[in-house]
Specification:
By secondary structure, the protein is mainly alpha-helical. It is built from 8 helices and no strands.
Length: 213
């Protein structure tokens, strides 16, 4: 940047902030986050589940592609947890729920079940993320099974988050309902493909053992 242009930069930033304040950008952003942060969290975490399933595929993806899928899986998990933290902060800041209800499941005064499902889903997602970050600590055979069981907790967490998102708060807009439906269809389809592939591998293994015998 040329030295002659540097004094004009603060003035331009102040002018931009003044125009944004005049247009009500802050209020509109807060209104969007009040409803959209939770949707973004669920969509991000759903994409995390889908990419995690893709990263385990060995029929269509090579090792390089699986590594790429794992990277996308982890990046989306971080984004989902960030949107989740933003969603919780906005709801507490706007007195939609209390800090205690957000921290302790099923203690909300108005919607204990639905808000509690969201809280439980948040804890499970955080536990899965921490377990994934410290996967090397589960390097033993028994530890690998424990890690897999912990990682499977993402599925009930996702289901609880879906119920929470659909029924807690105001009625969902059409685009939000469509996003939830796509999330459900995507995870269900990916799980069905994974189960089908697993059943084929088990059948092939049984047939191989039978032929050897």
């Amino acid at each position: 940047m040329r030295p002659s242009a540097r004094p004009a930069l603060p003035a331009a930033i102040l002018l931009l902030l003044a125009v944004a304040a005049r247009a009500g950008v802050a209020e509109r952003t807060q209104e969007f986050l009040d409803f959209g942060a939770g949707v973004l969290a669920l969509v991000s975490l759903t994409s995390t589940v889908l990419w995690g399933l893709a990263a385990t595929d060995r029929r269509l993806l090579g090792s390089a592609h699986r590594l790429l899928a794992q990277g996308v899986h982890r990046g989306l998990a971080v984004a989902g947890l960030g949107f989740l933290a933003l969603h919780i902060w906005v709801k507490v800041a706007e007195d939609r729920t209390s800090t205690a209800a957000a921290a302790v499941p099923f203690t909300d005064n108005t919607q204990p079940l639905l808000i509690g499902l969201g809280t439980m889903a948040g804890y499970l997602f955080v536990a899965v993320a921490v377990g994934g970050a410290f996967r090397s600590a589960f390097s033993s055979v028994g530890g690998s099974r424990q890690w897999r069981a912990l990682h499977m907790a993402a599925y009930p967490a996702w289901g609880a988050a879906l119920v929470h998102g659909l029924h807690a708060g105001r009625p969902a807009a059409g685009w939000a309902t469509a996003a939830y439906a796509l999330c459900l269809a995507g995870v269900a389809g990916a799980l069905a493909l994974r189960m089908r592939s697993r059943l084929r591998r088990e059948r092939a293994a049984r047939e191989g053992r039978g032929g050897t015998a």
